[in-house]
């Protein structure tokens, strides 16, 4: 059985999912592949210890801290190839980025292959079911393009800026520039107000 709850963040409402003990999903509202890894109905249940731990982790993250991924019990659902790609994502430090091609080279070495398709890696990165915590937003195109984030390129920019990434060599592709999120500044204000109310 799978359970879900929501979390109000500076980048919008986030859905959290668990199997009772482990976090299996973290999706931004409207995210591509939202809940796709869960094959059965999720039951809404807010009072789960794993959700409490994840929400505290996210509170610290959005406050500018750098909580360790290992602090949370994660169990993303996916095949071996995807699991291996997600493990590489977990190795990317805060404030750093890696390219799809870099991950493809690491996967090729791991699988004893001469090379690996960056597109196959991109598919695995895009299907990461535990966004933000497993940092797929830290993956960029070989030319510095901020492309391919299932939660939206403007969310990707906000997360990288929050983490202190050097944005000087990164850019938003023209297609993404045509549809900016106008809600993001308001969401940061709502989040700050919510946090101030809790203190």
Low-confidence stretches: 177-188
Total number of strands:
6
The total number of structural domains is 2
Instruction: Give the overall silhouette.
Output: globular
What is the CATH top level name of the largest domain? Mainly Alpha
**Rg of Cα set:** 17 Å
User: CATH architecture of the largest domain, please?
Assistant: Orthogonal Bundle
The separation of the N and C termini measures 34 Å
Q: What fraction of residues sit in β-strands?
A: 5-15%
Structural class: alpha/beta
Following the backbone from N to C, one meets helices and strands in this order, namely EEEEHHEHHEHHH
> What fold name stands as the CATH topology of the largest domain?
Arc Repressor Mutant, subunit A
**Assembly type of the shown chains?**
single chain
- Biggest sheet strand line-up: 3-2-1-4
Mean pLDDT: 86
């Amino acid at each position: 059985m799978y359970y879900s709850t929501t979390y109000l963040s500076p980048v919008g409402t986030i859905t959290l999912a668990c199997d009772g003990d482990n976090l299996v999903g973290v999706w931004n509202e409207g995210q591509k592949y939202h809940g796709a890894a869960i094959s059965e109905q999720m039951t809404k249940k807010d009072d789960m210890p794993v959700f409490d731990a994840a929400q505290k982790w996210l509170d610290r993250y959005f406050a500018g801290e750098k909580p360790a991924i290992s602090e949370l019990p994660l169990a993303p659902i996916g095949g071996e190839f995807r699991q291996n790609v997600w493990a590489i994502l977990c190795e990317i430090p805060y404030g750093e980025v890696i390219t799809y091609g870099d991950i493809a080279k690491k996967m090729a070495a791991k699988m004893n292959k001469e090379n690996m398709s960056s597109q196959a890696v991109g598919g695995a990165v895009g299907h990461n079911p535990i966004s933000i915590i497993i940092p797929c937003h830290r993956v960029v195109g070989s030319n510095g393009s901020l492309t391919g984030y299932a939660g939206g390129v403007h969310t990707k920019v906000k997360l990288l800026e929050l983490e202190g990434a050097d944005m000087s060599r990164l850019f938003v592709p023209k297609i993404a520039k045509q549809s900016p999120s106008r809600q993001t500044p308001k969401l940061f204000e709502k989040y700050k107000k919510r946090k101030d109310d809790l203190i």
